[in-house]
Write a structure and sequence with these properties.
The chain is of the alpha/beta class. The chain contains 11 helices and 13 strands. The protein has 2 domains: 116 residues, Aspartate Aminotransferase, domain 1, CATH 3.90.1150; 209 residues, Aspartate Aminotransferase, domain 2, CATH 3.40.640. The chain is globular, with a radius of gyration of 21 Å. Bound molecules: 4'-deoxy-4'-aminopyridoxal-5'-phosphate.
């Protein structure tokens, strides 16, 4: 066959993102909401989607949705931008603040997509690993930022996969120590009920990422948003795909956001179940559990990869991090429905008992 020349060199070491979805009875590997959008809201969505003109391009900036998000957060439209899931906005962050000759400070272990985006955009990556309990190594982070060469960094709160929060005083100290763009990724903030939103008024270098994928049960629809200073948001307008958020997704997101109070019960159920799963894992011999403020829990167990495989053989899919640096022998379970969590705990106990 006639051959094509090699792709861009920065792709050579990149593995395509693989959510490792394998068919299972209980899918608790991707931090999804165990409940779909309630049926009365689905009916309203059907009605709204019927009114969408499929032959017309969507509103590029999703202004109606932007206004709703802005109002709910006490901001103006210019301080909000909507994207095709948080993922698009993460990629756009690397396009806006990264690139050749620029530097991203990563704080691993954390969400792997950040590093991929930096690699794709030829951004230099420097790292300050977290402490063994996954808290930030603050002296090292501050020391690294003080060198002045970091262009952007991402603090994840709650962190994925460890579940711990960035403390408000730590966020402030980091924001004050640098003029780098500091993203606080709050994809899971609804499960922690804590946000750095109040800091936006003081720090132009703060940007907050949120998503409709978790608390609002819309992982399949792909809507995320950023809250930030107007001058920062303006940069994102330059790099985004003009129509990245399609008209159907905009319509769905508007209805869901209008009814956002009704998702509170689901969030409460997840928080309750998180407490239960945490207690049961803590009481399990051979398991070290990390406290979580998100809709997932990280735990460490000897022979984690085999445990993961045996759980899958028994119909329960969780996430295996045992091959990731700093996460040796770690597995992460999403908080599912009560029945899903019961099944997970039952099968885990069976797997561990069989190994004794
Ligand atoms: N940030 C973090 C920490 C995440 O875990 C995720 C989802 N896995 C995202 C952002 C992006 O989510 P989405 O693209 O579904 O909005």
């Amino acid at each position: 066959m006639h051959q094509v020349r090699p792709a861009a060199p920065q792709l050579a070491d990149i593995e395509p993102y693989d959510p490792k979805y394998l068919p299972a009875d209980v899918m608790i590997s991707a931090n999804e909401n165990p409940s779909d959008v309630p049926s009365d809201i689905r009916r309203e969505i059907d009605h709204e989607v019927r009114r969408v003109a499929f032959n017309r391009y969507p509103d590029p900036l999703a202004n109606e949705l932007r206004d709703m998000i802005a109002e709910a957060n006490g901001l103006s439209r210019d301080q909000v931008i909507v994207g095709n899931g948080g993922d698009e906005l993460l990629f756009n962050t690397a396009l806006c603040w990264g690139g050749p000759g620029r530097t991203f400070l990563n704080l691993p272990p954390t969400f792997s997509v950040y590093v991929n985006n930096a690699q794709l955009t030829n951004t230099r990556i420097v790292e300050v690993p977290r402490n063994p309990d996954f808290s930030l190594d603050m002296p090292a982070v501050l020391e690294r930022l003080e060198r002045g060469d970091v262009d952007f960094t991402i603090l994840t709160s709650p962190n994925n996969p460890s579940g711990d929060l960035v403390r408000l005083d730590e966020a402030k100290r980091i924001l004050e120590s640098t003029d780098a763009l500091v993203m606080i990724d709050e994809a899971y903030f609804e499960f922690s009920r804590q946000t750095v939103r109040p800091l936006l008024d003081q720090y132009e270098n703060l940007i907050i990422l949120r998503t409709f994928s978790k608390a609002f049960s819309l992982a399949g629809v792909r809507v995320g948003y950023l809250l930030g200073n107007e001058r920062v948001i303006d940069q994102y307008k330059k790099v985004r795909q003009p129509y990245s958020v399609d008209a159907v997704s905009q319509a769905i997101a508007r209805v869901v956001y209008r009814h956002r109070g009704e998702f509170e019960r689901g969030v409460e159920r997840i928080i309750e179940q998180r407490g239960r799963v945490f207690e049961e894992l803590s009481a399990t011999d051979g398991v070290e559990v990390f406290p979580s403020q998100a809709n997932y829990i990280l735990f460490r167990v000897d022979g984690a990869h085999e445990v993961w495989q045996q759980l899958l053989d028994r119909g329960v899919l969780i996430r295996d991090f045992s091959h990731s640096r700093g996460l040796e022998n770690c597995l992460r379970t999403s908080i599912g429905s009560e029945q899903e969590n019961t099944r997970f705990l039952t099968e885990l106990h069976a797997v561990l008992d069989a190994r004794r």
